[in-house]
């Protein structure tokens, strides 16, 4: 994906309705098949009232449009596309392959996915197919071909929506078909069995393979399995799901000129796809995001996901393909949004680069497992708080449309890696409580609290433009990727690395000679032993900080100690260090600091590196988007108190000039100011 393709794809979406880039994409999933035809006209009329510009349809349409194998029935879809088109609403057309219909799995039960224990999943939910299944792929390809041939040039169709949240439920399949595909993938990766045996360390526990056929997916074993095998299976599984996307993508590109995408799941609870590998194949990056109320501060994770999505889009505008107007149906307790929260969530995405906001879904279902999931149009109808909030949101987005196409300003990068996530969370590690995403989130939250906007970048990305780079718990890193960080610091950059980084290479092989392996020289430290802490043990540092989870015995080779442990297993030993390296400096945080002191260390490093931080008030999120002629400052007040900020400019939501801006409790404000920098 080139950056110009992304912006032209987004501009294309909006071109129908005015000048390119002049209107926010405001959209939703729509499942008209769940409703009588009589409802459709009302739906479209209300969509126009709400300012909807893009509607995703046919996402779960397979059983409707191919009721029997090879028999296609498009009358209803024709009709709904026409209705939307007549109303001036663009179509985000699903290929319809997200959930195979019963006729497919009953004729071909071998497509059903298998768990690690060898249990087949039954049909009856959704996405019940093995991603490697040639039978499934052929059926999906045939359906995509029919859909693309029929609608590929229809003027209403503005975007292709391949399948839906690929790999959401079925990414890991352990069946025999997957096993054969895994072997093929391994043959491509390693060429010879010798290389594979070496990469997997199969001298351990008599695991040496003498023939490819002996290799299996990491099915349930009695003891721990081989970690390198498990890691490769994660890579393989991500690639297989990507290939399901690519099968359809190739069809769409052959039969249509409309931009192609699918909805990613950059989120806290799904980690099966390495989206850094996916982006070359989508014309615009689209993400689905739902607040996760199982996390400590759900809206901070929202900001993280939005920044990570912008990272995938390489800084270009991206599309929020799904969020909810209120509660979902799939968490243990489905918490409704507070008044104003929908606006805050939406503007946090926009502040962080989303130029389109879509929802799941238009009209709340009356049946099925999602019937208690919120929607734009709730069960209660238009005489409801929700509907009024939706209209208000639509108006608010209209009032800030001049931010479209502007860039989010961030001078700190955080390295984020799905591969490291997979590897870190494997078993038999020093502490099962060191979970990759939790450590990334801890760093992210501290930076968020400090008012520092970050770009999430892939390992190995060019870091030249940043004042500081943060590397949270990057347990798995390639030599070349670590070198990019060292070279960046040597050239004058600043890095902060946190514990359990640099330990293994891409084969999950430990670097010998002392931790943190790939970063030891950069950080000027040498660790000879890890001392993870028992659950709930808290240690103290001479800086006044407390810490949990992790300690390690560090020797300062060239670094100096910034803070040392006072107690715990290593009293008097370094806990935080800093090292001059070439023209720059590198900090090491060798323990899980409490949030306040983690923020403190990151702020010190950021100050020293000349990072611009937003003037912060606790709980007020502030992000800068920069256009050619103006700066746009977004303020999102997550607190119950009003907040006042001295700023001169024009506030877009209330459409007033300001010199002192009051941001009421729970409110959102966007101020256009003079550009501060070129
Ligand atoms: C997404 C999915 C939608 C809907 C939604 C509910 O994961 O793409 O189809 O199920 O969740 O939150």
Can you describe this structure?
The protein is of the alpha/beta class and 678 residues long. Among the domains are: 412-609, 3-Layer(aba) Sandwich (Rossmann fold), CATH 3.40.50; 620-674, Golgi alpha-mannosidase II (Immunoglobulin-like), CATH 2.60.40.1180. It is 31% helix and 19% strand. The strands form five sheets. Strands 5-4-3-2-1-9-8-7-6 form a nine-stranded parallel β-sheet, sandwiched between helices. Strand 20 and strand 21 (584-589) form a beta hairpin. Helix 6 packs parallel to helix 9 (227-255), helix 10 crosses helix 14 (436-449) and helix 11 (341-351) packs parallel to helix 12 (385-399). The radius of gyration is 26 Å and the shape is globular. Mean pLDDT is 95; it is low at 1-9 and 14-21. Beta-D-galactopyranose binds at residues 164-165, 168, 288, 290, 322, 324, 328, 360, 370, 373.
Index terms:
single chain, 678 residues, alpha/beta, Rossmann fold, Immunoglobulin-like, 9-stranded parallel β-sheet, 7-stranded mixed β-sheet, 17 helices, 19% strand, globular, binds beta-D-galactopyranose
**How much helix, percentage-wise, in residues?**
25-40%
What's the overall geometry? globular
Count every helix, treating DSSP H or I runs of 4 or more residues as helices: 17
Give a quick account of the main beta sheet: strands, pairing sense, barrel closure. Answer: 9 strands, parallel
**Could you name the CATH topology of the domain at 412-609?**
Rossmann fold
Give the distinct bound molecules: beta-D-galactopyranose
Spans of at least 5 consecutive residues whose pLDDT stays below 50 are: 1-9, 14-21
Please tally the β strands and state the result.
27
CATH architecture of the domain at 412-609: 3-Layer(aba) Sandwich
Mean pLDDT: 95
- Any idea what the CATH superfamily of the domain at 412-609 is called? Class I glutamine amidotransferase (GATase) domain
CATH domain class of the domain at 412-609: Alpha Beta
Which structural class fits the helix and strand makeup? alpha/beta
